[in-house]
Amino acid sequence: PNGAWQLFVRDDASGDIGAIFTGWSLSIATVAMTNPLVNLSVAVTAAPDPVFVTDLLSYTVALTNAGPNTATNVVFTSTLPASVSFVSANPSQGTASTNTNGVVVGSLGNLAVGGTATVNIVVRTTVVGSITNLVTVGANGTELLSAMAVATVQGLVFNTAASSVTTNGDFSLNLIGRPNRVYVIEVSSDLITWTPIFTNGTLSGAVSFIDTDRLSQRFYRAIEQ
């Protein structure tokens, strides 16, 4: 509060009228906290992001106590997305487990000034889409804090931007899958009967295929083996 203070007045009336007759002043009153609260912060991250469906996703919850006192009885909850299955929860201190509603609950004990604690939560994804994990943290003498992590769960993706008809009339097909997986590309003219025409020879996850059949209009699909 020390330093020069300025007052800005906006004249929104027509004509040159108006005045500040009594001047202005600013009074600042300070108070001493007899029982300072602890200053907790929480952050949660998800990795890998994006993640392929059925793969493992790891959430890392990080708590920090900036003081001025020790945070006592630190607890947290992690409300997992409905479209994942719980695998494990490992805190750097205290305990953590999941309840019947799919919520991970934990008791981390006390956290000293400047101290940090982490919780690693592992889940398995089951559905393609965007998923959110909401984490809530509290301790004696503090309000509840919350943070969230949003991750994208993807499946086998046809790269439409890189798939096109070549200059000689062939069709170049590209898809993005998981590394170290075998993918079979199949074709159909009626979406009922499917015939395999290509199996990827690389395990990088990227599959490229050129269809030289220029006489047919066909549907394509890819199957992970």
Task: Round the Cα radius of gyration to an integer and report it.
Answer: 30 Å
Average pLDDT number: 84
Sequence stretches where pLDDT stays below 50 over 5 or more residues: none
Which structural class do you get from the secondary structure elements?
mainly beta
Our count of helices gives 0
Strand content of the residues, in percent? Answer: over 45%
Characterise the protein shown here.
The chain is an all-beta fold and 225 residues long. 0% of the residues lie in helices and 50% in strands. It contains no helices and 17 strands. It has strands spanning 40-47, 51-52, 56-65, 71-79, 84-91, 95-98, 103-111, 116-125, 129-138, 145-154, 157-158, 164-165, 171-176, 183-188, 195-199, 206-211, 219-224. It has a 6-stranded mixed β-sheet with strand order 2-10-9-4-7-6, with no helix packed on it. Strands 1-3-8-5 form a 4-stranded antiparallel β-sheet, with no helix packed on it. A hairpin with a 6-residue loop joins strand 14 (183-188) and strand 15 (195-199). The radius of gyration is 30 Å and the shape is flat. The chain starts with 39 loop residues before the first strand and ends with a strand.
